[in-house]
Amino acid sequence: MDLSIVIVSWNTKQLLDDCLASIFKETKEINFEVFVVDNKSSDGSAAMVKDKYPKVNLIENKINAGFAAANNQAIRQASGRYILALNPDTVVLKNALDGAVKILDKRPEVAILGPKTLNSDGSQQKTVWADPSLAAQIFLLTKLKHLFPKLKTIKKYYRFSFDYNKESYVEQVQGSFLLIRREFLEKRGLFDEKFFIWFEEVDLCLRARKAGYKILYSPETQIIHYGGESFKQVMTLKKQKMYNRSLFYYFWKNKPRWQYFVLRVFEIPSLLLAALAGTIKSLK
User: Fold this and answer.
1) Centroid of chain to Cα 165
2) d(Cα 37, Cα 6) in Å, to the nearest integer?
3) What is the number of alpha carbons within 13 Å of residue 108 lying toward its C-beta?
4) pLDDT for 283
5) For burial by CB atoms within 10 Å, which of 19, 33, 94, 204 has the most?
6) CA dihedral angle for residue 9, residue 17, residue 42, residue 228, rounded to 10 degrees
7) pLDDT greater than 60 at residue 232
8) Whole-angstrom Cα distance, residue 267 to residue 41?
9) Facing residues of 179 across strands?
């Protein structure tokens, strides 16, 4: 088996339908299997998969297990040489998966590939970032990035000058599409399940680099990503709490301990600002 595609879904029925349709329509040259892990959706997503895509391996969770754990459920059953962790709010464009597999076949030094990702209007979506620094994350937590978007720290983290038309080795790619070499996962482990959502892909990319592999951004592979549809359903304060939890764990695990404790100072301000933003949004 060339490729095992893993899609974790939570209440994204129509988007999931479009995603699956694009996979089966546009993937012709490789052998592949598809897993959908449904995290206790209430919108009929699982029933839709059963009815329209009988070839898909469906895993129905009784709880929302989160992104990392749900992906791992399917990866443990998968047989592909490569694993694609794919968001349900994506559409695979022509020959994207065929081409991506061919690229990794020629690049044994690459553990993870990220594609050129387009917004729904065809514009470029920014999907490449630097490794999270303490300063950048403080600016994010305090929302100061909106007041000072041109600060060197912010520009460096978001890679504002990155050329998305050029193939490049990078530090990390967005988790909406992660084509992963199975050999790397077998050697270094699956997604860290202590991440519920957010930063699990950042951690995986870091582990790959530490193990001597490369992370590749390739514009030859293209998808559309509608962006965060599952978590548009979560209130702003709750979303911030989930983000903080993953961010703090990432720093605890991967950074000097003093940076973790500095970051925790900004937890309450970040939650207060998120609550304020949620209140203002509800009044509009």
Assistant:
1) 21
2) 7
3) 0
4) 67
5) 204
6) 50
7) no
8) 30
9) 84, 113
pLDDT tens digits, one per residue of 32-85 = 999 999 999 999 999 999 999 999 999 999 999 999 999 999 999 999 999 999
Q: What is the pTM of this model?
A: 0.94
- Pairing type for strands 172-173 and 128-129 reads antiparallel
d(CA 281, CA 284): 5
